[in-house]
Design goal:
The chain has about 150 residues and is an alpha+beta fold. The chain has helices spanning about 1-5, 100-115, 115-125, 130-140, and strands at about 10-20, 25-30, 35, 45, 45-60, 65-75, 85. The protein has 4 helices and 7 strands; from the N terminus they run αβββββββααα. α2 (about 100-115) crosses α3 (about 115-125) and α3 (about 115-125) crosses α4 (about 130-140).
Length: about 150
Amino acid sequence: MNTLLRPLETHLQVLNHSETPTSFLFVIAKETKSSCCPLCHHSSERKHSSYMRIIHDLPIQGKPVLLYLWTQKWFCTNAGCKRNVFTERYTWLLPSKRRTRRMEEMLRTIAFSNNCVQASLLCQNLGVSVSHDTLLRLAHQTEIPLTSSPFRRY
């Protein structure tokens, strides 16, 4: 099971996994003894607390995948930093998001290739429960780079 989540991050450990008739569930945690403050980038080894986040990942065999992620909070030991407590960050997950980056990229690709109503129906067939409003919001949040047209005459 660790090989399924290996592309996300190398230090993730699968604590438990189960399959229900409607989904796959993974309980995961990151094996770290320290973390860097996102504001001052100072490393801290003082744990504050931990909590569980529920993250949606890409479906497997048409079934949704739920990652129950044990996340650590840390004290920032830098006296000059304004942030006293911070949550550890993950490269595969944006702060305060409930979907992995690769899941958001898949949804963004589907939203831009169809209209959002058809895209939500396609997502349901793939095993992802998402509304057309969510896909539309995701499309509006996407920054599209401006490029000049090759057919421009001047």
